[in-house]
Structure formats: C-alpha cells, structure tokens
Amino acid sequence: MKPKELVAAWVDAFNRADVDALVSFYSKDAINHQVAESPVEGREAIRKMFADGFASATMVCLIENLFEDGEWAILEWRDPLGLRGCGFFHIRDGRIVFQRGYWDKLTFLRTQGLPIPKDA
C-alpha cells in the first residue's frame, strides 16, 4: 500500500474509532508525536493513546488535502467543530514508523467540553 493509500485507510479507521485497525498500521516500535503532547513510543502505547482519546472525546477527521512524497504522506484535516491540523506520516514496509501531528490543544479541549489545564 502506498503512503497516501495507507493514510486514507488510517483516516477511515480513525473515523470509526477502530483502535485495533488503527494500531495495525503502525510498526512495532513506531513513534506518534502529537506536538501538543509528549511523543508516544511503541504500538501498545499508541493503542492506549487512541483508546484513551476515543473514550474521552468524539473525534472526526475530514480530509482537506492528502499528499505523498516518497515514503511520506502529508494530511491536512479539519473536524466538524472547527478544529484544523496536519499530520506527517513516515511509512516504511507498509507501516507507519513515525507520525507527527500539529493541532491546537486548547481549541480541541474547548470544543470537546474537556477540562482545560491550569497551565494552558
């Protein structure tokens, strides 16, 4: 599967809140770094990150643009509540080995009705 196709399938699994399907796209020692958070290392830690996220918020990813450059896919997205972001996915041997995401945590917390940390 090409990087762009893999990320399109990742978005589909994300929108179903299908943690098992999402985790299947990652290599065993993958790193997922959402810049508003600390990096998450390893497939099982990534599984926990998604499970916790879907348990606390209703998350939807609407693709605005999806690009491919060699081993990389670049996703520009929005959600129905007005949050926007982008993600960079490094794909090797059909698996995500590294992912970095940029989005506004304060907007996410406010639109989801989640508590805002005192240091925000």
Describe the structure.
It contains four helices and six strands; from the N terminus they run H-H-E-E-H-E-E-E-E-H. The termini are far apart. The chain has 120 residues and is α+β, with helices and mostly antiparallel strands. Strands 2-1-6-5-4-3 form a six-stranded mixed sheet. Strand 1 (26-34) and strand 2 form a beta hairpin. It is globular, with a radius of gyration of 14 Å. Helices cover 34% and strands 37% of the residues.
Counting DSSP E segments of at least 2 residues, the number of strands comes to 6
Query: How would you characterize the largest beta sheet?
Result: 6 strands, mixed
Residue share in helix: 25-40%
Distance between the termini: 40 Å
Count of helical regions: 4
What characteristics describe this protein?
single chain; 120 residues; alpha+beta; 34% helix; 37% strand; globular
